[in-house]
Amino acid sequence: MSAKTVLKFFDKRDLECSICLQRFTDPKALNCLHIYCLNCLQDLMRRHGKIRCPKCHETYDLKDGDLKHLKCNETISYLVEYVEKIESEKPEACSRCANQPQDYCSECEMYMCRQCIQQHKMFPTLENHSLYTLDTDIEDQSGDSLNCQNHPDKKLEDYCRTCKLPACEDCKHILSCYRNQHQVIPMQTALNDVNLTVTETMKTAEGIKRKLKERLDVITKERSEFESNLKLSRTAIEIHKKTIIRKVKEETKIMMANLKQIYKDQSKVIDRQVKSIESKLTQVNTLMESIKKTMNKPTETENLASYQTTITVVENDAAADELDKSFAKTRITPKFIPSPKLVELMNHEGVGKLITVGGIYKVNKEDENISVTKGQPFSVRISSLAEIDVGQLTATLSNSSGAKSATEVTHRKGEYTVTGRCDLEGDWHMDINDGDMSHVIGSPVSIKVEPLGLVNTIENISEYK
């Protein structure tokens, strides 16, 4: 297979070493089949005393002399030579017009600009030709970054880690760095170090992104199963309804309404979880773009360190056990249980009851937003939809300033009541949960505490008579 045909199936980055982020030079393959430049592997060996694959982290006990004997990837070498030949022969102008060439057609052996390429693709006999996108801004930027800003005709040769400044052979400040025993390293080593850090950080970010997507897939699957069980419950209810339709019409309507409300409430829970994960994905994608900009820029090590810290925070947040526990408890399954001997027991038990498998609690609608005066006692009622309620609810009452107030939780016949009072004016919220992290729909409860005024005094005057 020819190089021009193989390039159809290759991305340009497949020809770049993930350590130096440049095109391969003398590519060597480790046993894990990951490929790196020989010089990059030798640099890793000098700095760490062993080879640890930056991609899969497999460790190899090799000696410096062993690296030269690693298997050379001849296909990659051939493709690199072919691409470099195309790049080196690139003309100043398009083969058809005066614009700068941006693509190369290996079939026509012509360098073309974007406008000419679009016309080229319009012909059916030419649309399947192999096209190679030429390097322009990226390589130019990479090359410029290795030239000294103070002496543009000189290449950067050294980098002072202490001062965080590069230097060429004409830069005077590097002499001071040597005199003061600063940590001065070759510029290529500095580039390799920062690029390796970028690669590892990007891999961490990709891992977080992959885990978030996996969680999103799990939630989507659970949502599908939930809706499937929802349909089964509807079918069971309808079949039971037909048997005793004349006696249970009103009860059936009530149960269908409850089922619809469960679906609505659960959908809100799932949508909130999806939104949370998508927010983290957006944050990771933004960080990844910022990290990419530090490539080939040793002077950005401080920013890169900041990005690494942020990535770690996001990773820890994404791996928190609370999220998994909370998610597991929200996976409810509607189930309809018909009553035996329904006709005879209609007046006592009704047509059946709608339950959920999995803990779920709900704040009464009228208690989701409360307005009270300073010091006035109030209560919040929470109902349980589980068949067997063994939860122990707790409630935390706090405001935006961090102030907290005591609460008391009581339980009676499947309903909880949380009482409390706030001695400071402003906006408060009550977070309600139980020991198993079961979700409480309607939590946190919003509480607006207003100053005690004349109107409120008159409204409560009966208490003082």
Written account of the structure:
- The protein is α+β, with helices and mostly antiparallel strands and 465 residues long.
- Helix content is 44%, strand content 21%.
- The protein contains 13 helices and 23 strands.
- A hairpin with a 4-residue loop joins β9 and β10.
- The chain is elongated.
- Neighbour order of strands in the largest sheet: 19-20-16-14-22
Task: Tell how many strands the DSSP assignment holds.
Answer: 23
How far apart, in Å, are the first and last alpha carbons? 99 Å
Provide the gyration radius in Å. Answer: 34 Å
Average pLDDT, rounded to a whole number, is: 79
Largest sheet: 5 strands, mixed
- The geometry reads as elongated
In short, what is this structure?
With 465 residues, the protein is an alpha+beta fold. It is 44% helix and 21% strand.
Question: What's the SSE blueprint?
Answer:
Elements: H1 3-6, E1 27-29, E2 35-37, H2 38-48, E3 51-52, E4 59-60, H3 64-67, E5 71-72, H4 74-88, E6 103-105, E7 110-112, H5 114-122, E8 131-133, H6 137-144, E9 158-160, E10 165-167, H7 173-179, E11 184-186, H8 187-243, H9 245-292, H10 301-318, H11 321-329, E12 333-338, H12 342-349, E13 352-357, E14 360-363, E15 369-373, E16 378-384, E17 393-399, E18 404-405, E19 407-412, E20 415-420, E21 426-434, E22 439-441, E23 445-450, H13 454-459
Parallel strand pairs: 14-22, 15-23
Antiparallel strand pairs: 1-2, 1-5, 3-4, 6-7, 6-8, 9-10, 9-11, 12-13, 14-16, 16-20, 17-18, 17-21, 19-20, 21-23
Helix pairs in contact: 8-9, 8-10, 9-10
